[in-house]
From TrEMBL, chains A, B:
It is an enzyme of class 6 (ligase). The keyword Transmembrane does not apply. Pfam families: QueC. Binds 1 zinc ion per subunit. This is 7-cyano-7-deazaguanine synthase. GO terms for biological process: tRNA queuosine(34) biosynthetic process. ATP binds at L11, S12, G13, G14, L15, D16, S17, T18, T19, C20, V21. Zn(2+) binds at C198, C208, C211, C214. Keywords: ATP-binding, Ligase, Metal-binding, Nucleotide-binding, Queuosine biosynthesis, Zinc. PANTHER family: 7-CYANO-7-DEAZAGUANINE SYNTHASE.
Amino acid sequence: MTEKKKAVVLLSGGLDSTTCVAIAKAEGFEVYGLSFDYGQRHTIELDAAARVAETMGLAKHVIAKIDLRVFGGSALTADIDVPKGRDEDHMGDDIPVTYVPARNTIFLSFALAFAETQGANDIFIGVNALDFSGYPDCRPDYIAAYQKMANLATRSGVEGAKTESSLTIHTPLIDLTKADIVRTGLSLGVDYSITTSCYDPLPDGTSCGQCDACHLRLKGFREAGERDPVAYKNDLDR
Amino acid sequence: MTEKKKAVVLLSGGLDSTTCVAIAKAEGFEVYGLSFDYGQRHTIELDAAARVAETMGLAKHVIAKIDLRVFGGSALTADIDVPKGRDEDHMGDDIPVTYVPARNTIFLSFALAFAETQGANDIFIGVNALDFSGYPDCRPDYIAAYQKMANLATRSGVEGAKTESSLTIHTPLIDLTKADIVRTGLSLGVDYSITTSCYDPLPDGTSCGQCDACHLRLKGFREAGERDPVAYKNDLDR
């Protein structure tokens, strides 16, 4: 019996990253989940990440603590109101206020360190097409440039180093719509009731149903012809 | 009077990064220092970084706390003995045990976030030629790949974004010997007595004089025909 290949999966506990876990497992990887406690206003997503790690049988789940608040500059880490009630057509107009400076660059850098210490050559990140317009660090050319840099950064990039293998950054959701993602996850048996996507949940974890993340998620389930199993405020019409 | 250009300088409080601060200032930049509390065994270097920030009049000095110990894997963050008494010829044979996985990738990622929130388009990092053989993430092709990735990662990389300027990563020490660095710093008025380079200092900050970092530093001063002003254990012959 050969040892399973290891993959680090960036795990926020939301729809996309949880689907990434299912895809990595379906591709035969032993999954090492990496979540961040980065001073986000709600730790509800870390609870969701821990539920996903437990339920989906991850080999290891690490929560790395980083404090992006020392730099300021985003709704997810500072005291700026999360925008509500925008429809999808208006989300891509600007870089969202929920943008965290250099977030994916920082997250992938930690994933790189984790992968190196675990002997993993694969990293999964759940960026997807809907994010392109708003978040610069979700685009395919950014991911490709990151992978190139990463392969120069680590031991395996050094001539004569023992490790010959190179690092691959997987973005299995990059061309999928939210409906595609929901369908993919459900076909792989994902239980989306343990996930959370809301930017502004109630203290008990109930999703607001009004922020951009809730809108996209609900639309995804609707278009997939499925019902989102998480609880929403006002038990809104789905 | 025009506003000064801003630069983020990665500041460990050692010889190289302190010289970088002096070079950035000499090039007309207002300097934003960024240090890391990354679970290193000695916080003596953070004290040195704070002294440098104060003495050299930085616009701002931020210490970002990150915990690389969750991943394991290095003498600087774990309980592995720091190698002693190696001469320079043997330092490049292997990747040093003082290697921190993905360290510069993580440090530069935070620098990118800091630069973005401060409106800086320039980052200085004190990597230099002597580090090439041992540390993969000190090589010029790595830095070039990082810069390319960084320019795709941030708002300025987005078509139609307000910020037109692009990010430059400066490595002014990259081709210098330690003696060159000492000469450059002294010519710019750097007071090296406030810096520290030792991997394994005494509790009072006295350098051990025996680790790789001490060896390189002492050799640099010796070859520059100068005396290193920091205190060494046993007041060793310099």
